[in-house]
From TrEMBL:
One of its GO terms (biological process) is siderophore biosynthetic process. GO terms for molecular function: acid-amino acid ligase activity. This is Siderophore biosynthesis protein. Residues 155-379, 722-966 form the Aerobactin siderophore biosynthesis IucA/IucC N-terminal domain. It comes from the Bacteria. Pathway: Siderophore biosynthesis. Pfam families: FhuF (PF06276), IucA_IucC (PF04183).
């Protein structure tokens, strides 16, 4: 097997370059192609490296699978691979090692030809890439040995040290025009230097552009003296034109120059003056004696373009330079320097105008140059995976081991300084001046001070784009200048060149050679952007950047394929600044300004308790003239301001008006919760023990709700991202009286783990022996891909190292997350035997940071917001239910999710744009050791759920549906701006049609009932206008009858609840034979604790008629019926307009004697209205 390893460094680097380019431009997510290690032919080669991920990708045109192994999986595509690759030809049933880059190029180009055969293609793409391969090999074979180690020795070393060039350009070293001898003479990669060749051009043939009002003289005296000696008295009639030596020879052979040479309008002077050396761009040279750059013309095609200087490009560069100089940009922005082009000139010979064109560029004084490096040369790896930048970072902290965990803080600090002198000032420049710089790695130089980033230096004005409307009028620049661009295009260019080409490349390079992760550097980038002060305009563009879901990438390979460089193809990739956040990015919490928060909390509990008890008819009451009255005895009674709502005839109270009257004592008092419960005991039939437990739940709810109200986010909820809204919404269940009991949490734990208060935390990871585990995964994921959702390659290596020290084998265990509270309170106490016998091994790794969702036990990954959420077993009781995870529900989770996902995906009736997103539970893990104690049932389990962020599209946002009924921290409804913007009826019609109707459709069409209460729904919207719903929590939230399924053959093999579980939770089952039970299961969640609460909320805050609300819903249902008469029988079977609905009694079941499913029959709001027209 060792024979398949690519031993030569240059081939290996080209494999990386070409694969990464192909994958990125064809939007191949390499994570989706990760395969189980044992399925890869490379496994035996890297079996001792659990940090290695194996992938397989099929080139369909060749019917060939490439197998590879990934060392570093990069979020922006800068992957690093192990050196072994394997090819499997499916047609010929052959296996071959891949050691020749040409073979890979052939696979890639054949695939491109097949994918895009209907488009006009560059037929020479394969030969162009092979040309680049040959040149790369030539450079490596001829590179001076003393510079091969890539030691940072100075500015020239980085300029001339790029042997591979652009990491995402498949023809990065291609050239057509240079012979091998020419390459030895003129290539920066080989440390070339040479004299310029000069022509004397008659002044009448010179055309010149200058950026300064007083142009400088750029020709050194030595050259001037030589020219004077040659030209004698005619010297003043000529101007000197420097050229590249290769170009001089090219020009001398050009037919169009011959007559000018013969007439001596042009005189060739030969090689003169100082020795110059080429920079990374090949044609631009550094003039060390003049401290200038000179951009020359050479009619050689390098990468994809002939590298001469057409007049329009020179005009653009000079126009940009004029603006830089006239607006004193370098003086206004001291954190960077833009090197303007000082002078451009060429000849008035049309055929030779581009070939003679030159541009003098401002240089740098020696004291600055000494500490300045070209960034592209700092990050190119040598064969030992070393980069010159590492030496600079190391010099900044000579006592730090950059491979140790302790170095992370220092590297993060160093990186934040980099962001402050690069990304931030260039955002400010664009925001305030409309100037977009082409800050890719070869155009960007960094001046270091004490090895810290000090000042960014930018060059090549030909790539600058300026928005005319964003900069003060500059009359010196023509309206037709090619320097002017639209705001949209200029912003795209800046995001690509600065963020993707520059920042992303640096982050990947640093992460590949140090202990830090890419995600941590992106988090630091985001944090620095949000913490630094911006101007008002700068803040606007900062926010645009960090809130954009994607970033643009110029597809260099596809542009080469189509010859479309002048009108480039762009693709979109996930924005890592948006994706990676961390706990520090959370909006801080601050003390509430509502000093009566304890009273508010107690009122909420008392009001909700009485509302539930009244609705469930647990005691007699009188309701008259907006007041409710109920008697405790002949002499004691309570009164409270109340309103009977149309929705389910619910009575809502104003608990602050609750009064206890004692006729005997002649008193009227404001009761507290304790007094109310004491009185209620006298009029409610209840099991004494259960009533006391219920009392405890209510008191805990009061105390913990008060604690959660004591702190609020520093910004309104409506301004926060979804994951923070999901945590910070304080409503909880709007009907259940013990909506926040959280039995098991003390106040310190509530502060740490409650969603409203948590500042984020890591979970306890353990390695659980396979013999204890029951793992069921979705058909869309394997174990390696699951691990990659939580751990980097470095993390996996650290875990393996720990397990080796424990003398156990990584492959015999499954990495298992446990809520830290559950670990402390349950697992560490009740699973000691398993821990002692190394069946459960606590791991040192921290893993991602999580923020709890409203359900407490489900945790959002805030290190990577698009990564999977964790639903973890907790022996915590909340809203009267234990939050363990019953084993049968865990085993069903992935199967049910896949089933529902496929049903919705294949539904051709639901419009695509409003198909609900199914947030799949893609894996379930139960630790099923023999249950010795009741406390162990369901106590160690996890369900993995997809993140809503992996489904959002550009311009879309998400808000929990519970938020639609939430009063924000400014005491306005969270939805208030949306209602004001769109009008309540228009907004509501979109909400009901796009978010709620599809849930009913799933029952009508497919026979699946979903428990879609508000907490299980997420609203996807565009600026508040509803687009669709995302649905979640399916492991115990779906019911069906197999004889009523539209396609029963698709039903997976599911485990029903065992009898022991049903005794504890009689409302937990999958199958029923009753269509009414399916309808009621849907309506109880969707109608009663979702839509009814919304109808009441809109009535209370906007005086919106509830009858109108339900009429709109009925009309929308009828429209669906009219559009789909084929479902007439199903509409009758699952009739949402029946007279009554069975609703679960959530309060009474807590204190009545026997455990059973308790429901009550209530009028259906839709049956109480007549359909009316509305506009």
């Amino acid at each position: 097997m060792n024979s398949i390893i690519t031993t030569d460094a240059w081939s290996y680097k080209l494999f990386e370059q070409y694969l990464n380019t192909f994958f990125r431009e064809l939007k191949v997510n390499l994570e989706e192609h990760i395969i189980p290690s044992q399925d890869s032919p490379l496994f035996t080669l890297y079996a001792e490296r659990p940090d290695t991920l194996y992938f397989a990708y099929t080139f369909n045109a060749s019917n060939t699978i490439i197998y590879g192994a990934v060392q570093h999986l990069s979020t922006t595509g800068y992957h690093r691979y192990q050196r072994g690759f394997f090819l499997q030809n499916l047609s010929e049933n052959t296996f071959d090692s891949l050691t020749n880059p040409r073979k890979l190029v052939k696979l890639i180009t054949d695939e491109l030809n097949s994918l895009f055969k209907d488009k006009n293609q560059n037929k020479n793409l394969y030969s162009d890439i092979v040309n680049s391969i040959e040149n790369t090999k030539f450079f490596l074979e001829n590179k001076p040995s003393q510079t091969a180690s890539k030691v940072v020795s100075g500015f020239q070393a980085t300029e001339q040290g790029m042997l591979y060039g652009h990491p995402f350009h498949v023809t990065s070293k291609a050239n057509l025009g240079f012979s091998k001898e020419d390459m030895k003479k003129y290539s920066p990669e080989l440390g070339a230097s040479f004299q310029l060749h000069y022509f004397a051009i008659h002044s009448s043939l010179i055309q010149k552009l200058v950026s300064e009002t007083e142009p400088s003289h750029h020709i050194e005296n030595e050259v001037l003296e030589a020219a004077k000696e040659h030209l004698q008295e005619n010297f003043t009639n000529y101007e000197l034109m420097p050229t590249h030596p290769w170009q001089a020879n090219f020009l001398l052979q050009h037919p169009s120059l011959k007559k000018h040479l013969d007439s001596q309008d042009v005189i060739y002077l030969g090689a003169l003056g100082q020795t110059v050396w080429p920079t990374s761009s090949v044609r631009t040279v550094w003039l060390p004696q003049s401290n200038l750059f000179l951009k020359l013309s050479i009619d050689v095609r390098i990468t994809s373009f002939i590298r001469n200087n057409p007049m329009d490009e020179m005009e653009r560069a000079i126009d940009a330079s004029k603006i830089i100089i006239n607006h004193k940009i370098n003086e206004q922005y001291p954190d960077f320097v833009i090197l303007p082009e000082l002078e451009a000139k060429t000849v008035k010979i049309p055929e030779l105008e581009s070939s003679f064109g030159i541009i003098y560029r401002a240089g740098l004084p020696p004291e600055v140059l000494e500490n300045t490096r070209m960034l592209g040369g700092l990050v190119e790896e040598n064969e030992n995976h070393e980069i010159p930048l590492l030496s600079i970072i190391q010099q900044a902290a000579p006592n730090q081991n950059l491979q140790s965990k302790d170095a992370k803080d220092f590297i993060t600090f160093w990186w934040k300084q980099y962001v402050k002198v690069s990304l931030i000032p260039l955002i400010e420049l664009f925001a305030n001046k409309g100037i977009s710089v082409e800050a890719h790695m070869q155009n960007s130089l960094m001046e270091f001070k004490n090895s810290y980033p000090h000042r960014l230096i930018l060059r090549d004005m030909e790539g600058i784009s300026i928005v005319p409307e964003m900069i003060e009028d500059d009359s010196s620049i023509s309206e037709d200048s090619t320097v002017w661009f639209s705001q949209k295009d200029a912003w795209i260019f800046l995001k690509y060149y600065l963020v993707i080409n520059h920042i992303a490349h640096l982050i990947s390079a640093i992460a590949r050679v140090t202990v830090i992760e890419e995600s941590e550097l992106w988090q630091a980038t985001r944090l620095t952007l949000t913490q630094e002060n911006f101007s008002a305009k700068g803040q606007q563009y900062r926010d645009l950047l960090i809130h954009s879901l994607t970033l643009p990438i110029k597809a260099n390979m596809l542009n080469t394929l189509y010859h479309s460089g002048g009108n480039p193809i762009w693709i979109e990739v996930e924005n890592p600044i948006y994706k990676y956040r961390g706990a520090e990015a959370l909006c801080p919490l601050q003390p509430t300004q509502q000093t009566n928060y304890k009273t508010l909390a107690e009122n909420r509990v008392m009001g909700q308790l009485l509302e539930a008890l009244i609705f469930e008819n647990t005691f007699k009451y009188e309701f008259s003239k907006g007041q409710i009255k109920f008697y405790i005895s002949d002499t004691v009674f309570y009164t409270c301001v109340a309103k009977r709502h149309f929705s389910f005839k619910r009575i809502k109270l104003n608990p602050s008006s609750l009064v206890r009257s004692d006729i005997t004592l002649g008193t009227e008092t404001r009761p507290n919760l304790k007094a109310l419960l004491t009185d209620l005991k006298n009029i409610i039939e209840a099991d004494p023990v259960k009533w006391q437990n219920f009392n405890d739940e209510l008191n805990l709810t009061y105390v913990k709700h008060a604690q959660t109200l004591s702190q609020v986010p520093a910004q309104p909820l409506r301004t926060l991202p979804y994951l923070e809204q999901e945590a910070r919404i304080t409503n909880a269940h709007l009907y259940h009286p013990s909506f926040k009991s959280r039995i098991g949490f003390d106040l310190k734990e509530n502060q740490k783990y409650a969603p409203e208060l948590s500042e984020g935390f890591t979970v306890q990871w353990v390695a659980t022996h396979n013999s204890l585990c029951k793992l069921v995964l979705s058909e869309t994921i394997n174990l390696e891909q699951l691990y990659k959702q939580h751990f980097s390659e470095k993390d996996l290596q650290a875990i393996n190292d720990q397990l080796k020290k424990e003398n156990v084998d990584f492959k015999d265990y499954i990495l298992t997350p446990i809520h830290p509270w559950q670990w402390d309170k349950i697992i560490e106490l009740y699973y000691q035997d398993a821990i002692s016998n190394q069946l459960i091994i606590p791991l040192d790794i921290e893993g991602p940071t999580y923020l709890p969702q409203q359900s407490i036990r489900t945790l959002s990954n805030i290190s990577d917001i698009s990564a999977l959420s964790l639903k973890l077993a907790m022996n915590l009781v909340n809203t009267s239910t234990s939050r363990v995870l019953a084993p049968h529900t865990v085993q069903n989770a992935a199967k049910m999710s896949d089933w529902l996902y496929n049903i919705v995906e294949q539904d051709h009736i639901l419009e695509k744009q409003r198909k609900p997103v199914i947030l799949r539970e893609i894996g379930g893990l139960s630790v099923n050791q023999q249950i010795a104690l009741p406390v162990q049932y369901g106590a160690l389990a996890c369900i993995w759920r997809e993140s809503i962020y992996s489904y959002l599209k550009e311009g879309e946002s998400a808000t929990p549906v519970t938020g639609l009924m939430q009063v924000d921290t400014d005491q306005k409804p969270l939805i208030d701006e949306w209602i004001q913007e769109y009008g309540i009826e228009f907004w509501l019609e979109k909400l009901l049609t796009n978010a709620y109707l599809p849930i009913m459709h799933i029952l009508w069409c497919h026979g699946l009932a979903l428990e879609s209460h508000a907490q299980n729904m997420v609203l996807i919207h565009k600026n508040g206008l509803p687009v669709k719903a995302a649905l979640k929590d399916f492991h115990d939230g779906i019911r069906f009858s197999r004889h009523l399924l539209r396609e029963p053959g698709l039903l997976p093999n599911l485990q029903d609840a065992p009898k022991e579980h049903a005794k504890i939770n009689p409302n937990s089952f999958l199958e029923t034979h009753s269509p009414n039970e399916l309808r009621d299961f849907t309506q109880d969640a969707l109608w009663f604790v979702n839509l009814a609460e919304l109808a009441i909320f809109l009535n209370e805050h906007y005086n919106f008629d509830e009858i109108k609300f339900w009429t709109m819903l009925r009309t929308i249902i009828n429209q669906h019926k009219e559009a789909h008469p084929e479902f007439a029988e199903r509409y009758e079977l699952f009739n949402f307009t029946d007279d009554t609905i069975d609703i679960e009694q959530l309060a009474s079941r807590r204190f009545l004697p026997e455990i059973r499913l308790r429901v009550q029959t209530t009028p259906n709001p839709l049956s109480l209205i007549k359909e009316i027209e509305y506009e």
